[in-house]
C-alpha cells in the first residue's frame, strides 16, 4: 500500500470533550488509501521542538471529499501544541501507516463488541462507519460499543453516536455517567449477565485496558482485534523503536518482538506477551504545561 | 543514510529511491539474529531522541539471503554496519560478507559492549578498537569504515588506533550515552535504563568530534550526528568530512536526504563552486579579524 | 544557580531575591583577573548554546573586596567556583577564600586546561583531578564540591578519585565540548573554535553522568545540565541528586529558579510527600513489568 | 534603572519594507522606563526552538499609552518566526536593557548627524523623536539623517519620516534610490563637500559600517554615539557573552572587554578595538528557510 507525505490543510478544529479535540483535514491522497485502524504521523509544528512526529489514528475518513478527521486527547507537549493550531494552517502528515482493522465478513450478522477506553474511541468510530457502509445488511444495533472514560466531561456526547444507530454502553471510572468503574469490568459483567458472546471484538484504549480485553478474549475464545500503542519515532518500520514483546505459540520462551507500526497497530489478543510489557502513562494533566 | 535509521532500505521506498543516495548503511548486523531490547526503546528529548533498540537484526545469513538481493535490485550502494560481542564475531562477520555481491564496504560499529571485558565498549579504548579493526581487516579486502563513539576522553586517539589497524575511513559519531526518567512512575523511560542520544541536539558534539578526528588522522572521515539540512551537512564538509550520514532526521522527514542533496547543489551554485571538493576542508581558522591591519581583505575598507 | 550563568548575583536583582535561593554559585574565580576570550563567545545551537567565555572574571582579590560584601548584604548563600591553571593556583585560591565571611563552600572547577600538562584538562584524568582536590582540601576547612566534566570515558572513576582526595560533594556536569561553524564565512562561529555546550540539549547526558557518579560514590551529588523546569530538576533528584543547579535557563527566563522551587513544592503536595528527601533517590529500576505474575501491584488487575 | 519581564500583547504588526517588520506592543511597564537606544530581549515563541531571546531596540516608545514599537529585519530563524506572529498574540519581553543614547544638551542648536545602515534605522527613529520632543527649540532640519540600505525595496518610505521634518540623505548600495554606494561614503562626501561638521553624531548599523563611522568621528574629533551589536544570551550582564574588545587609552595593549548589554549598546567611537573584532554576518536571504 502506498504511503504519502502530504501537507494537509486544517479545515476545522474544535474541542468536543474535555481536552479532546476533533480536527478535519484536507488530505486527498491519504484519505483515498486510508483504512480504519490505520494512522498518520503528524508533525505538530515546524522546527525541532518537538522533534518527532506524533501518531494519530484515523477517526473518520471521507475518501470522496479528500478529507480525514483526527480525534485526539491533549496529554503532552505535542498534542498541546497541536490543539493550538487553527483552520487555515497546514500540517505535514505521513500516511496511511500500519495494517488497519479487518472488517467482519460480508455475511456476518451476529453481534460484535467494540471496547473503547478514553481516546481509544478514535479509530473505532471509523470502523463502525465502515462496517455500516460496507455491509448494509448488518443491523447497527448488533454493534455494541462499550465506551468508558475517567469522568463524564471526557465522554463524547450521546448525539455524536446518534446517526450511527449503534448500541452504546457507557461507563465512567468515577460514576459520573453510566456504569461506574472500568469499561472492561462493565463489558465483562454485561457479557456474563446477558450471555453476550460477540462474533468478534474490537478494542482500543490504554494498554492496561487491552490487557483485560485480551485476557477475556482468550478465555472466551472470541477473535479480537486490539489497537495497541507504543512510542514511535518513524512509523515506517525503520527505527525498530515501537517494539512490543511477541508471543510465539511455538516457542513461548522466545524473545521476539512485533513492531506496532508495521505488524500493527491492530493485533490479535494472543500476539503480545503481556507479562513483559512496560506501560508508559502520561503525566497528570495538572503538570501538563510544565 | 546512517545505520539503524533507514531499516534495510525498503522502508523508505515510497519516499525516495535508494539508488539516488550516495550509499545506504543498513541496520547493524550480527552473526546471529538478535531480538533487541525490551520496550520502551525510545524517548524523545530536547531536539533529540534516545534509543535503546538493542541492535535488533535478522542476523547476517538472513541479511545475505533476503535483504541484500532486494537492495541490489534497487541498485543502492550498500554499506553493511557490523557488530559483535567479541573480536571473533567481528571477524566472522567480515568473512561472511567478504565477496558478497552488492556490498560496497563494511562499517565497523565499535560502540557496543565487549562481553569478554565485562561490558566495556570496544570503541572506548585504543587497544580494543585496534583489535577489532585488525581482525576484520585480516578477513576482507572490502573498504573498511570504523564508526567511533563520542563517549571517550580523546576520540583522536581511538581514530589513530583504528587507522593504524587498517581502517580505510572513519565515521563519527555514534550516539551519545544518555538517560531519561519519569518522575511520576519513578522509573527510567527506557527499559534498558541507558540509551544513545541522537538528533539535532548532538550536532555541536559531532562537529567537535569530527574536527578532532580530522586533526588526528589523514584518512577520509564521514560526518554523522544531528544532520537534518544541507547547511548541517555542509558544516561537516567545511571541517573536512568527505561524506555525511543522515540518521534521526529520516524519521521526521523521510525525503530529507534528497532535500539535503538538492540543498548542497544549490549552495555550490550560489557560491560559484563547481565541485564539492572545492569546499571540503576549507575551514579558515586564521583570518579572524577583518578590521586588523593584516586583515585578509574580506572587507572593503573604502 | 550554576556558575557562570548568574554573574555575581547582582544581575538578577530585578527578577528575584538571591536570598530565596538555596545557594548562588558565582562565576568562576581565578587568582588574577582574566579578560576572557575574544568574541564571538556564544552561539545558539539546537535546544542549547555553546559558550567560550574564557572564564572572564575580576580575580579573587576584587571578588572578596567588592562582590562578596554585596552578596552578604543580600543574605545569599554563596558558593565560590574556583579554577586555576596549575595545582598551586587552586591551592592559593583556597587559602584566600578560607575563612572569608559569607563563603559557604567552594566549587572546584576541574574542567579547565592544565597549562603544565600541555592544556590537558584536569578533570579528564583521575590522578590530576585528585591532585587538585587534595591541594584545595589541604588549605581549607570549607565544604568542597568538585565539578566534573562529561567529556571523559568513565566519569565514575573521576568522581571516585575526587572523593578519595577529600571532596565533600560532586556537581555534574560542566558543559560538553562542542563546536560550530559558519558555511558562508567558512569560519568557526566562536573565536576560540571550541566551546562548551549547555542547555536542554545536554540534559539526557547530564542525567546519565549523574547516575554513573551516584553509582560510583556515596557523597552528595548536585545535578546540573539542561534544567529549566521543576520536572527537569525532579528528574535529577529522582536519580539521587541532593540538589540541582540551573544555568542556561536563567538567560531565557530570569525568574526560572523561583518557578522551579514552586513547581517542586507543587509536585510534592500532589504526590502527598512531606519532604523532598522522601523523593530523592527513589528511582525504581526493578519493577518494570506491571502485567507480570510477580508484578509489584502498580495496576489493579481486577 | 528597573528591568521588567512583561508579557506584551501584540497590537499591530506589518511588513513596512522588504523583510522589514514593524510591531506595536502593549507593554506599559517597559514603555514607561524606556530610553532611546535601549533594547528588549524578546522570546520569539514558547519552547526551546529557538532557545535564546533576541535583542531588539526600541523603535518608538509611547510611555503614556504604554506602548512600544519594534522595527526588525528578518535575517534568521528567530526573526522569521517573529514575523509569523499576529496581533492578539503575546510576546514575553525583558527590558529595558542597556544604557541608551545621551540626548544633545538642552541648549544644543547646531547640526547633528544620524547615520543608519539598513535596519540600523530602528533606534535612531526613537532618538530623533525624543530630541524633537525634549528640545522644541531645536530645528528638526538640523537633524541630518544619512540612511542607506542595499536596495530601494529595503528603504522605509519617505512618508515615514515626513512628520519628523528631519533632513534625510538617502543612499542604496546598488544605486536604485538616492546616492549610489555605502551610506558612510555618502556621509563622508557630504561632510567634505558642504564642510558639514556636526556637533554630535549618532549611528546604528552593521559593524562594518560602524568601523567607518568611528574612524571618521575620531579623525574629525566629533563626539559619536554608536549603537553596537554582539551576540547575546542574557542581555543582563550575567553570561558575559556579548563582549567586544575594549580600547583602554591608558594601556593600549591591555586585553579587556566591554559588554554590549551592560556597558552599551551605545559606545563612543573610541571604546572598542576595531582591529580585534570578528564580524558575524547573516546568511544570504535565499538560504534563510534552510
Ligand atoms: C498507532 C497509534 C495511534 C494513536 N492514535 C491516537 C488517536 O487517534 N488519538 C489520540 O489522542 N492519541 C492517539 N495515540 C496516542 C498519541 O500518539 C499520543 O498521545 C501522543 O503521541 C502524545 O504526544 P504528546 O507530545 O502530547 O505527549 P508526550 O509529551 O510525548 O508524552 C506524554 C506522555 O504520553 C506518553 N505517550 C506519548 N506517546 C505515546 C504513545 N504513542 N503511546 C503511549 N503513550 C504515549 C508518554 O510516555 C508520556 O508519558 C496513538 C498512538 C499510536 C501508537
Ligand atoms: C542591542 C541590540 C539591538 C538590536 N536591535 C535590533 C533592531 O531593532 N532591529 C533588528 O532587526 N535587529 C536588531 N538587532 C539584531 C538582532 O538582534 C538580530 O538580527 C537577531 O537576533 C537575529 O536573530 P535570528 O534568529 O533571526 O537570526 P539567527 O538565526 O540567530 O542569526 C542569523 C545571522 O545573524 C547573525 N546575528 C544574530 N544575532 C546577531 C546579533 N545580535 N548581532 C549581529 N549579528 C547577529 C548571526 O551570526 C547569524 O549569522 C539588535 C541587536 C542588538 C545586539
Ligand atoms: C533508532 C536508531 C538506531 C540506530 N542503530 C544503529 C546501528 O545499528 N548501528 C550503528 O552503528 N549506529 C546506529 N545508530 C546510530 C546512527 O547511525 C547515528 O550514528 C546516530 O544516530 C547519530 O546521527 P543522527 O543524529 O543523524 O541520528 C542508530 C541510531 C538510531 C536513532
Ligand atoms: C555562559 C556560561 C558560563 C559558564 N561559566 C562557568 C564557570 O565559570 N565555571 C563553571 O564551573 N561552570 C561554568 N559554566 C557551566 C555551568 O555552570 C553549567 O555547568 C552548564 O552550563 C550546564 O548547565 P545548564 O545546561 O543548566 O547551563 C558556564 C556556563 C555558561 C552557559
Ligand atoms: S516507529 Fe519506527 S519502526 Fe515502528
Ligand atoms: S548578553 Fe549576557 S552579559 Fe551581555
UniProtKB/TrEMBL annotation, chains A, D:
Q: Which cofactor does it need?
A: FAD; [2Fe-2S] cluster
Q: Which UniProt keywords apply?
A: 2Fe-2S, Electron transport, FAD, Flavoprotein, Iron, Iron-sulfur, Metal-binding, Oxidoreductase, Transport
Query: What highest taxon heads this organism's lineage?
Result: Bacteria
Instruction: Fetch the CDD domains from UniProt.
Output: DHOD_e_trans
| GO MF entry, a single one | 2 iron, 2 sulfur cluster binding
Cite a single GO BP annotation.
Answer: pyrimidine nucleotide biosynthetic process
**Pfam families, per the entry:** DHODB_Fe-S_bind (PF10418), FAD_binding_6 (PF00970), NAD_binding_1 (PF00175)
> E.C. number, please?
1.3.98.1
- Top-level class of the enzyme under EC nomenclature: oxidoreductase
The protein, known as: Dihydroorotate oxidase B, electron transfer subunit
In which family does this protein belong, per the annotation?
Answer: Belongs to the PyrK family.
Chain positions recorded as [2Fe-2S] cluster binding sites = 234, 239, 242, 261
Binding sites annotated in the UniProt record for FAD: 54-57, 71-73, 78-79
Question: Where does the record place the FAD-binding FR-type domain?
Answer: 3-103
Q: Cofactor note, please?
A: Binds 1 FAD per subunit. Binds 1 [2Fe-2S] cluster per subunit.
Automatic annotation (TrEMBL), chains B, C:
> Which residues span the membrane?
none
Chain ranges of the Dihydroorotate dehydrogenase catalytic domain? 1-268
Alphabetized GO MF terms: dihydroorotate dehydrogenase activity
Chain positions recorded as substrate binding sites? 27, 51-55, 109, 174-175
Q: Which PROSITE patterns match?
A: DHODEHASE_1 (PS00911)
Active-site residue list: 112
Residues binding FMN: 3, 27-28, 81, 109, 147, 173, 199, 225-226, 247-248
The protein's superkingdom reads Bacteria
Q: Where this protein primarily resides, as one coarse class? A: cytoplasm
Co-factor remark = Binds 1 FMN per subunit.
| Iron-sulfur among keywords | no
- Provide the protein's localization: Cytoplasm
User: So what EC number does this one have?
Assistant: 1.3.-.-
Q: Which UniProt keywords apply?
A: Cytoplasm, Flavoprotein, FMN, NAD, Oxidoreductase, Pyrimidine biosynthesis
Pathway assigned to this chain's UniProt record: Pyrimidine metabolism; UMP biosynthesis via de novo pathway
Which prosthetic group or cofactor does it need? Answer: FMN
What is the role of this chain?
Catalyzes the conversion of dihydroorotate to orotate.
Protein family according to the UniProt entry: Belongs to the dihydroorotate dehydrogenase family. Type 1 subfamily.
Protein name, UniProt field: Dihydroorotate dehydrogenase
User: What does the record give as the organism's lineage?
Assistant: Bacteria, Pseudomonadati, Thermodesulfobacteriota, Syntrophobacteria, Syntrophobacterales
